[in-house]
Amino acid sequence: MSIFSNKLSLLAALFLMFGATACNTIEGMGEDAEAAGDAAEDATDGE
């Protein structure tokens, strides 16, 4: 493999790794926002 091909492969692997991490982070933020919304709804309903 050429040096360019090696660098391109490394760049693609890093992109996929950081992309997967970002997806998990955003999913977690969504779950936190949903939990906060549920808590606010429960508080306004008097539960």
Short description:
Helices cover 91% and strands 0% of the residues.
Topology (SSEs and partners):
Elements (H helix, E strand, L loop, with lengths): L2 H43 L2
Determine the structural class based on helices, strands and strand pairing: mainly alpha
The coarse silhouette is: rod-shaped
Rg is: 20 Å
Uncertain regions spanning at least 5 consecutive residues: none
Q: How many individual β-strands?
A: 0
Encode the helix/strand succession as letters.
H
Terminal CA distance: 64 Å
Please estimate the helix content: over 70%
Number of helices: 1
Strand content: under 5%
Q: What's the overall average pLDDT, rounded?
A: 83
Largest sheet: none
Q: Could you walk me through the main structural features you see in this protein, from its secondary elements to its overall organization?
A:
It is a single chain. With 47 residues, the protein is an all-alpha fold. It is built from one helix and no strands. The protein is rod-shaped. Keywords: Signal. Residues 1-22 form the signal peptide.
